[in-house]
Amino acid sequence: MFRPGISPPxxxxxxxxxxxxxxxxxxxxxxxxxxxxxxxxxxxxxxPGAEPDLREPGAGVxxxxxxxxxxxxxxLVPADSLEARVSSYAQDDDLAAVMEITDVAPVSVPHRLxxxxxxxxxxxxxxxxxxxxxxxxxxxAAPYAPVAGTSRRMLRLEVGEAYVDDxxxxxxxxxxxxAAAAPDPLAAHEAELLQHLAAAHQEQxxxxxxxxxxxxxxxxxxxxxxxxxxxxxxxxxxxxxxxxFTEPVGTxxxxxxxxxxxxxxxx
Length: 267
What we know:
By secondary structure, the protein is α+β, with helices and mostly antiparallel strands. The protein has two domains: about 10-180, Pnp Oxidase, Chain A, CATH 2.30.110.10; about 190-265, Split barrel-like (Alpha-Beta Barrel), CATH 3.20.180. The protein is built from eight helices and ten strands. The strands form two sheets. Strands 1, 2, 3, 4, 5, 6 and 7 form a seven-stranded antiparallel sheet that branches. Helix 7 packs across helix 8 (about 250-265). The longest helix is centred in the C-terminal third of the chain and has 15 residues, at about 250-265. The radius of gyration is 20 Å and the shape is elongated. About 35% of the residues are buried. Mean pLDDT is about 90; it is low at about 1-15.
């Protein structure tokens, strides 16, 4: 059961999203949350009972984040932020916190909100000898982000529960599953790849969906298993179509071959 601590999902934008009806191979819920947690898409960190003043620019928004091999979420925040101040003396399970991640399509389509994930747990500062290891992990994940020091603090979110509501559906994720999951290997390149497909391969994408009779067809999401395209005509509702790769891909080079095969089959 989904425990208290994470606000239940459900917004007008989410309810309007087309849901998959095809029997497609797909990432697990844990993999989807892990992918979003390690991505650069928008995230908001809140501490129940001590919410930041969202009128302040950047309030509650980590400057960098990543996930440790053990499944803890590392966050880099300004030293004078509410999160840094409130958590400065926290120990173990003293301080509950929730990170909400919002995934918006990097291309122009109806209903651009692709999904949300919530990761809840306990927030503590990164202390002692862990600091050097965590600083390296954050630097690898976000090489252009500020570094920890007098003006920045590293925080650790020990995951107690997670939930995802996205193009694949809604599902709770257990902490052990989150820790064991791996992010999608294409995630770091997905935005650039989708924008390239939309700009340079519009006719091939439309060819994949020729049987749908859509006036518009735009690549919406990409993972190691396949491509999702959103299409629509006139004022009618938009719909999604999913195109599986013959084999899961793990690199951009493998993706190029898989896309060539898809486009050749689409004629």
